[in-house]
Amino acid sequence: MRIYIFYSIKFNYAYDNKKSGDIMRVENRKIEGDIKINEEVTMNGTINGSAIVLKGGLLVLNGIVNQDLILESDSKAQVFGSVNGNIYNKGGELEIHGTIMGTIHKEAGIIVIYPESNIKGKIY
Asked: How many structural domains compose the chain?
């Protein structure tokens, strides 16, 4: 599995335990296939596959995941865009502001659903 890197932006604020000035990867294009994320990534484009957020990873999704979003333990995801498949939370922290077309499966972890979100499937 590959994560395609197109450019990085330097931020001047802290996110959780990260120190000021850490770099977050920003993806602005279509990625074919599944990806595994073990760092901070902002996705503004499309993933034509599943996104798997590994321990220590953070996905800020402003774009689209066309299959499933999977959060492993100690991972984080913020969904402002769309997930066209299911979400499986196996111990991560999930914030939903956008659209989820499938179901949400919570095996462990935290899920926060904001009023502006749109969930088409069921929550288990």
From this structure: 1
Closest CA to 54 of 74, 82, 34: 74
Which among 85, 75, 84, 72 is positioned nearest to 41, based on CA atoms? Answer: 75
CA-wise closest residue to 102 among 124, 76, 80: 124
Digitized pLDDT (tens) for each residue of the chain, 124 residues in all: 333 333 333 333 323 444 444 678 899 999 999 999 999 999 999 999 999 999 999 999 999 999 999 999 999 999 999 999 999 999 999 999 999 999 999 999 999 999 999 999 999 9
